[in-house]
Structure formats: structure tokens, C-alpha cells
Amino acid sequence: MNDELGRAHRPSDSGAPPSEGAALREEGEATALPASSPAAAAQAPDPGAAVPPASRPRRAPRAFTWLLLFLLALVAVLASQVRKPPTYVHVADGPPPIEAPTGALAEAFELARDAAVRIEARCGSGRNGYPVGVGSGFFASDDGLVLTAYHVVDSTATIGCNVRWVAITAQEEVFPLTLVGFDAFNDLAALKADVDRRVPFLPLAERAPTPGTPVVAIGNSRDDFLAARAGRVTRLGVQANRADFADGTIELTNSLAPGDSGGPVVNARGEAIGVVSYISFNPGAMTTQEFMPPFLRGLSLSRDFAGYAVPLTAGSEIVSEVVAGARRDLPVIGFSWQTDYQPGRGPHDLGPRPGPIVHRVARGGPADVAGLRPMGQKPVTNADGSVGVDLVADVIVALDGVPTPTFYDLLALVKARQIGDVVTLTVQRDNATFRLELELGAKTSVFAND
């Protein structure tokens, strides 16, 4: 598991677009004009020109020149917020060393830890079962309401097991959990713990943090149990560069890893400002709508690692809806994916166009009803007379006429639709191309019996 924080198959987000350092240099040099620029040329003397008489008064810079300089600086700052699609490379082996909280933040952690919980997904019969997944969460009320990241308790991620969840407190008490509501788009879920008394809880922050705010996350990664990971806020309103991650998140320097997902991010006042959602080994690929670049706030961004948390405030509409039992699910086609097909880059010829390969098809789901075929094998006779096998698979090459060369291209298009929308897939099968029409289903329903 690379950057997945509680799910077994969340792949690494290790893109490498133009480095953050390069972006900062561009921002820092925005007001310095190169000698070859028109504005600089207008102000630099021409060595071959006649020298004006000494008595001629020097002309003051025109208002137009100052306006041009201001516009050039503004364009340079805004351009630093626009990033090209990333090229994915591996840039880090793991998260940075864990930083311990100090001062008021350490005191806030000690108080908050009693309200934090370890969340385990368990399978098997009997009272305890065996754990198949670990995440984090926290009590948000004294009657046992728990908040966490939705992907920690997403039942569709656990195939072949009737999973149930439990919360384990700092005192190692174990409480069964029942799902109350969730928002799959924003990676937030509420659960109810079967508690027999009032429990310690964390209040939600009254307002969002500002960049530079010291915070501590509480999690269960690296075989720790409800341990502290200190850091600070660097950016707000971050837009993910992949369709399977939440947008509008808080960027953090805290050293997070698998097992920390869903854990609270706490400020020095002991308030929860967010829940851990995902990590990235290429923070420069993430964009934000903030106008002021981080360097103007005195902040430096890591080029190799950052964590991201779903923001929480006491007046948040998303929190209120999830706690009230709303279930905002994702639209899906109804197939599982493992790899993309790239023509000419492997031993199998699945056609001339690239796209995600249909690995498995959910029984009775939209893909199954429409006639998508799961990946399989067929016998072939080789030139020497021996018998071998060849791969047969459907490749989805477009949705509603828009090419889908990768799974994440397809996922972004599907995610922009609504459950119940009718879409047209262009499918490549045995070097033939045809179209299938299907109605998008709700993820939890489609994969409930798969």
C-alpha cells in the first residue's frame, strides 16, 4: 500500500509535474523583468543612440509602463496556480519521520486521545472475528457518534467477506459500530458506537484553520495505537489530481500513513478541524483556489509528501447531513478494474485504442445487464502446433463519445454524472468496436452482493 490510508487497493499518487521549487522561483521572480522583455527594452538605453543634451529634463515613467509591469506580475502569480497534467513517477519511498507535538499542541493531544478510536473491519463468526482492515476515527458526541473517512468503512472495498466494524478506545474497550450516514464524494462517514455510558468527545472547530496553524493528527499507522503525528496546515481548498480522492481538502505536513485514515486532526485548542483522507508523494500536482501563494505567507511546501484532511466545522452542511443519516453514494458502471490497456505495450492485442480493461463484472449490475464481459482466457494454437492461452477482455475506450484512455479518465466522467443517468459506452472487444447503453447505479447497491 502506497498512499492508501485504510483500503487495500488504493494506488500511489506519485505524480511529478513541474516541481514546487520551480513554481516558487517563478513566483519570486514575477516582478523582475528579463532584459529581453519589451518593458525592459523600453527602459534600457540603446548603446548606439545619440546622447541627449544634459539640459534636457528626464522623462518620468509613463502610467502605461507601470500598468504593464503590474499586469506582468499578476499574470506570473496566477500562472503559478495553473499546472500541466502530471507525469507519474516514483519520488519517495515513504512518509517523512513522525514529528512529536510540543507545548499547547502536546496538551491538546493528551486530552483528545481519550476521544479518538481505532476502527477495525472484522470478518468471521464469533464475537471478535479477525481484522481485515484498520483505520481511525473519533467520538464527536458523548452518546457515541463517531466520525471517520468513508473509505475506512466502505463495505464495497472488502470482497468475499461480510464485514463488520468495531471501535477500540484508548482504554482498549471494544464497541460495535453501525453506519449512520456517509458522503462518498467528500470521504466522510458517521457511525454510532454501541456505548453503555457517556464517552469523551472532540468538539468541532468553529471556523476553518489558516495556513501555518500547528495541528496534530491521531492515528494507528506503523503498528502504533492512537499515536500523535504533529505538523501544520499549508493550504486550504485543495483540488485532488485524481477522481477517486476528495476535493476541497486541507493540506498538512503531518507524517501520515496507512492506518491513519479517518483520524482526527486537532488544533491547539483541542478542536477537530478535519479527518485524515489521503496522502500524496507529489503535492505539487494538487491545485488550490487560494489567491495568495504559500510563499507570501512565509510557508514552504514539501515537494515529496503531504497529507490531506476533509475539513470539519461545527456549522458544516456536509457534517450535518451525514450525521442526520444522508447517504450520498457514487454512480458506477458496475465493474472492477486492475489495469489499463495500452496498444503495443504488452503481449496481448486487444485492439487499436487504449482504455481500462474490464476485470470483473458485478452480478446484476448495470455492466452485467448491458452485456459487458469480464476478463478471461481462450485457447490458441501456436505456429509450432502447441496450444496456449490468450487474454480476452472488454476495453472501455469512450463514454458518451469522450475518449477514456485510462481508468481515472473514465472515473472522472462517471463521477460527474448522477445515479440513474443513462450513458453510452464505446467498447472494444476482439478488435471490434461497439456501443452499449446503460443506466448508472449506486455503488453500495451494485456491489452489495458481489
Task: Give a brief rundown of this model.
The chain is α+β, with helices and mostly antiparallel strands and 450 residues long.
Summary tags:
450 residues, alpha+beta, Thrombin, subunit H, Pdz3 Domain, globular, disordered N terminus
Structure description:
The protein is built from 8 helices and 24 strands. With 450 residues, the chain is an alpha+beta fold. A 6-stranded antiparallel β-barrel has the order 1-2-3-6-5-4. The protein has a 6-stranded antiparallel barrel with strand order 7-8-9-13-11-10. A hairpin with a 7-residue loop joins strand 7 (214-219) and strand 8 (227-239). The longest helix has 17 residues, at 63-79. The relative contact order is 0.13.
Model regions low in confidence, pLDDT < 50 over at least 5 residues: 1-58, 75-91
CATH class of the largest domain: Mainly Beta
Number of strands: 24
How many H/I helical runs?
A: 8
Mean pLDDT: 81
Structural class per helix/strand content? alpha+beta
Strand order of the largest sheet: 1-2-3-6-5-4
* Computed CA radius of gyration, to the nearest angstrom: 27 Å
CATH 2nd-level architecture of the largest domain: Beta Barrel
Percent of residues in β-strands:
25-35%
Cα separation of the termini: 23 Å
